[in-house]
Amino acid sequence: MTTALTLDNFLPYRLSYTANLVSDVVARSYDALFGLKIPEWRLVAIAAEADGVTQQAISARSRMDKVTVSRAAIALVERGLLERVANPADKRSHLLVLTPAGRDLYAKVAPRAIKLERSLFVDFDPAELDRFMATLRRIDAAALELEAGIIAAESADQQAL
User: Fold this and answer.
1) Cα–chain-centroid distance for residue 40?
2) CA dihedral defined by 76, 77, 83, 87, rounded to 10 degrees?
């Protein structure tokens, strides 16, 4: 028995489509108001939550590829919103830290982000949103477990060669 794939009913596609749709709406707002692209905003937000963070940690936390993180970091450093400082834990890398201008920008953007989130989910019940967030976290965990299995299988295949 063959099961046909209908893209619009394929859950990984729906997750991606919805995430991209929401991201596009948010991106327009951040770009128009603050001149920020989504990767730049994510980097600012992650840096605001840490007292210095490596590009590698940003990639892992955001699931953005290294090139995207690097380009965003360069743009933010050039704008004076981020600075690179020595990493005391690893002399081969550096930490990205918000400058005072970066902290000021974050203080302006964060309330806008919260307002956008509230606008998007205004018609959802709080309990429904809690369940949705819990479901997303379960999907994250399942995807990470699947990814680890795929990586392990690929490694085993490479060793067999």
Assistant:
1) 10
2) 90
pLDDT of residue 151: 84
Nearest to 25 by CA among 92, 139, 113: 113
Distances (CA, A) of 96 to 16, 46, 154: 29, 10, 33
How many angstroms separate the Cα of 84 from the Cα of each of 69, 70, 90, 128?
A: 14, 12, 13, 41
79: pLDDT strictly greater than 80: yes
CB-based contacts of 121, cutoff 8 Å, min separation 6 = 129
Backbone CA torsion sign across 147, 148, 149, 153: positive
E strand or H helix at 159: helix 126-160
At 94, give phi and psi (nearest 5°): -135, 165
Reported pTM: 0.83
